[in-house]
Amino acid sequence: MSEVTRNGGRRAARKRADVLVAACAVVAERGADATRFTDVTAATGVGVSTLQYYFGSREDMLIAVFRFAAQSDFDAVTPRLAGIGDAWERLLVIASHLTGAVGSDTGWRLWVESWRWALRDPELRAEVLGDYRRWHEMLASIIAAGVADRRFGTDAAPMDVARQALALIDGLALPVALGDPQVTGAAAGDLLADALGRLVLLRSPAL
To answer: In sequence order, what are the beta bridge partners of 152?
Structure first.
């Protein structure tokens, strides 16, 4: 492959990624059902024919948005965990990210939209369940490490605790995404920290 071909491919990939970032914002604002190619064109300046070239149909574009948003969420939290050794602090990083206690709630709005579409689309449903498995596995590994370090006192299976933890996160993130004035991102973070501490039977760090 020539250098020109490689560079052209990289530019095209970056352009498609830029379009997906903008499309994520459009879908988060308008909802998947109301998003058309023309809405993304208005936000990006990229023509409808180019969007069709990138994605195919409107439905394919929306599924690409859901995939991109899910991967972006995972990619965003991973570097935040780097250098943090304490299992409790790692758990709080994930919790604050997923509840929107930090940053934008765009990702969570897209997550809700992906749930709706997954109910009707078996392929997307499998991907959404796969995303859940990734989060469950990440949480379970942190919980297992916390138990091994005697930071957590729970004797339940780490995967069971991980499923309960993510259920708590989902339950508190929804009112944040809906704009409930009584459950802001910060309030959700505080409530979640308290609930997670009880769930894992948090212990004081060893001196």
So the answer is: 202
d(CA 152, CA 143): 7
pTM: 0.84
**What is the CA angle 112-137-148, rounded to 5?**
135
C-alpha–C-alpha distance, residues 164 and 162, integer Å:
5
Grouping H, G, I as helix, E, B as strand and the rest as coil, residue 105 is coil
CA distance 21 to 65: 8
The tens place of each residue's pLDDT in the chain, 207 residues long, gives 444 334 445 565 678 899 999 999 999 999 999 999 999 999 999 999 999 999 999 999 999 999 999 998 889 898 999 989 999 999 999 988 887 654 566 877 888 899 999 998 898 999 999 999 999 999 999 999 999 999 999 999 999 999 999 999 888 888 877 888 888 878 888 889 999 999 999 999 865
Taking the C-alpha atoms of residue 171 and residue 114, their distance in angstroms, rounded to an integer, is 16
